[in-house]
């Protein structure tokens, strides 16, 4: 299963489908074939592994399929993996996580009904960590939301005169661009779009455009300028004329967006937090003090310390002189 998880990580983090890996084993434990899902419209991991086994001239009848996610039982862009495994004569299936997608669930049940030995829950925690955004998005019927902030040690995103470039280091900014290249959509407000003229692109360390460019979403009722950097190269630009975070996520869910990165200013950050739709926070913190200026998050309506929004840290990563704190808004069960 650990090998299957390594294979799954080769697939794209973005897109409507999950990252899945599969290893086919002979009864003596020899590897017959391996595969992973390379993105929407391509063969699923199980089918890719079966194809790899055929290419090796291996007989998979009586084999064990080790898969990071329960085989799907759905015909969409591709056929059901449960049927593919049955047709190939696989005798045992071991998977890490049950599929939460109501359209695809049922693979394990079909396999068991056909006499296949099915084992679930192997390396489940590791698989859930890998699939965190996708699992949450599919389970909740809305995109997984990462709120990104980049601030001074005293929580400022701009000085009193409005200047903000650059609070964080090149290392922190490179990390943030790598995160952009893994999400489906970037979200900012019209205030940020008008004041900062952002390109909202994902770039590599040498400054060139990354292969994957997320959807560029601007939220708010004000018109966007005809020119500007948003008119330049990058992902599609979508202007959603609403201030309601839930309406934003509903519109993006319709587009099969699974992971959203909210990069707007203090007002948008507060709106998403107050709506209760933020799943995790990525806080880039620089060892800089301003003492005044715009805060990272606007008023949350918190009047007493007992009502504070308390996060649950998952990781702390040094980035040059800065630190990235990754924290969940809900404690993991």
The chain-level structural class is alpha/beta
* Rg value: 22 Å
Q: What's the SSE pattern?
A: HEEHEHEHEHHEHEHEEHEHEEE
Number of strand segments? 13
Helices, by number, come to: 10
**Helical percentage:** 25-40%
User: Which spans have pLDDT < 50 for at least 5 consecutive residues?
Assistant: none
Shape: elongated
Mean pLDDT: 94
Which helices and strands, and how do they pair?
Elements: H1 2-8, E1 21-25, E2 31-36, H2 45-55, E3 64-69, H3 81-88, E4 92-97, H4 107-113, E5 117-120, H5 124-130, H6 132-140, E6 144-152, H7 170-180, E7 185-189, H8 190-196, E8 215-219, E9 237-240, H9 245-254, E10 259-262, H10 266-274, E11 280-286, E12 312-319, E13 322-328
Parallel strand pairs: 3-4, 4-5, 6-10, 6-11, 7-8, 7-10, 8-9
Antiparallel strand pairs: 1-2, 1-3, 11-13, 12-13
Helix pairs in contact: 3-4
Question: What would you say this structure looks like, in words?
Answer:
With 333 residues, the chain is α/β, with parallel strands linked by helices. The chain has helices at 2-8, 45-55, 81-88, 107-113, 124-130, 132-140, 170-180, 190-196, 245-254, 266-274; strands at 21-25, 31-36, 64-69, 92-97, 117-120, 144-152, 185-189, 215-219, 237-240, 259-262, 280-286, 312-319, 322-328. The strands form 2 sheets. The chain has an 8-stranded mixed sheet, with helices on both faces. Strands 2-1-3-4-5 form a 5-stranded mixed sheet. The radius of gyration is 22 Å and the shape is elongated. It starts with a helix and ends in a 5-residue tail after the last strand.
């Amino acid at each position: 299963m650990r090998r299957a998880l390594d294979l799954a990580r080769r697939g794209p983090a973005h897109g409507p489908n999950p990252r899945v890996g599969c290893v086919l084993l002979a009864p003596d434990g020899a590897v017959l074939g391996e595969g992973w899902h390379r993105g929407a419209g391509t063969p699923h991991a199980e089918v890719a592994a079966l194809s790899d086994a055929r290419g090796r001239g291996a007989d998979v009848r009586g084999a064990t399929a080790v898969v990071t996610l329960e085989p799907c039982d759905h015909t969409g862009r591709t056929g059901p993996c449960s049927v593919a495994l049955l047709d190939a004569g696989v005798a045992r299936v071991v998977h890490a996580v049950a599929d939460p997608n109501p359209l695809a669930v049922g693979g394990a049940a079909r396999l068991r009904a056909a006499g296949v030995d099915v084992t679930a829950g192997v390396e489940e925690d590791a698989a859930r960590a890998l699939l965190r955004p996708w699992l949450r998005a599919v389970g909740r019927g809305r995109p997984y939301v990462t709120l990104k902030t980049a601030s001074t040690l005293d929580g400022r995103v701009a000085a009193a005169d409005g200047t903000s470039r650059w609070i964080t280091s090149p290392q922190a900014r490179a990390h943030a661009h790598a995160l952009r290249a893994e999400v489906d959509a970037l979200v900012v407000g019209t205030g940020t779009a008008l004041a900062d003229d952002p390109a909202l692109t994902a770039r590599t360390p040498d400054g060139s455009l990354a292969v994957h460019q997320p959807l560029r979403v601007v939220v708010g009722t004000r018109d966007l300028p005809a020119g500007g950097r948003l008119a330049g190269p990058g992902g599609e630009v979508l202007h959603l004329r609403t201030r309601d975070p839930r309406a934003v996520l509903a519109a993006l869910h319709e587009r099969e967006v699974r992971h959203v990165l909210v990069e707007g200013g203090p007002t948008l950050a507060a709106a998403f937090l107050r709506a209760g739709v933020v799943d995790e926070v990525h806080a880039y913190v620089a060892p800089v003090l301003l003492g005044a200026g715009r805060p990272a998050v606007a008023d949350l309506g918190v009047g007493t310390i007992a009502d504070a929004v308390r996060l649950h840290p998952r990781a702390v990563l040094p980035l040059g002189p800065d630190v990235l704190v990754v924290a969940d808004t809900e404690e993991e069960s």
